[in-house]
Amino acid sequence: MKISGCLFDLDGVIVDTANHHYVAWKSLADELAIPFTEVENESLKGLSRLDSLECILRLGNLEVSSNKKIELMEKKNQLYLQIVDAIGPDDILPGVKELMLELRNKGIGICLGSSSKNAISILKRIGIFDLFDGIVDGRNLTLSKPDPEVFIKGSKILGLTPSECIVFEDAESGIEAALSGGFFALGIGAEGSLKRAHANVQDLSDVTLEKLQVLVDSHESN
Ligand code: B16
Ligand code: MG
Question: From the CB of 29, is ligand 1 less than 6 Å away?
């Protein structure tokens, strides 16, 4: 497969907002006296706001009304927005912007594939919104990762098939979404994590289009 398109997750791939989501959920869980640590948070990564809240409520065996869920989600989001208010271009994760600039120069399509409804404001805040050919985010999705909808929509925006695209993901739900959609799934994170991905890197420092193509080719020859 020759790489023609790249679909980037946002939180945890482009910028370290994955941790900011955790801090905001942790504060809400503490208030509700629900035990919640980074271990439980791992399975929340990539899930929509509502799916994340419902996971946390299940951890505490709590059942609440739909109105209460809306109130709790709003509270978490306000806290999250307060935290991300401080982020800027310096918070882009290592290698991301360099890789995106190279991809653009070489005519490779770039699309966002994020579950977050805050994605566009974050991209504008860190100054890379204009590097994207397309955006799929929490505002245009009916199904949350691990459903492949987010990446299928992204590949369609780029005018490509899934088999021509790489997905960059830091979350198990996102890797599953990429695999079930028929994409090449590149896992980003600590060594030993995201074992179901086709290939893994710790971060995007020094990752180039050539290196990505080598990862794809070596997976295919295995
Ligand atoms: P929001 P991604 C996801 O973004 C996050 O990983 C997840 O933790 C968050 O709950 C979800 O977005 C919804 O975010 O509350 O801002 O709409 O990783 O798919 O870019
Ligand atoms: Mg993510």
Answer: no
- What separation in angstroms does the CA of 92 have from each of 11, 12, 31, 111, 204? 10, 10, 31, 16, 11
CA distance 93 to 11: 10
Look at the domain 5-16+89-221 and name its fold.
Rossmann fold (3.40.50)
Cβ–ligand 1 contact at 20 (below 6 Å): no
What architecture (CATH level 2) is domain 18-84?
Answer: Orthogonal Bundle (1.10)
Nearest CA to ligand 1 atom 7: 46
- Ligand 2 centroid to residue 48 C-alpha, Å: 11
Name the segment(s) of the chain with CATH classification 1.10.150.240: 18-84
Parts of the chain belonging to CATH 3.40.50.1000? 5-16+89-221
CB within 5 A of ion ligand 2: which residues? 9, 11-12, 170-171
118 C-beta closer than 6 A to ligand 1:
yes
Q: What is the pTM of this model?
A: 0.94
pLDDT tens readout for residues 112-157: 999 999 999 999 999 999 999 999 999 989 999 999 999 999 999 9
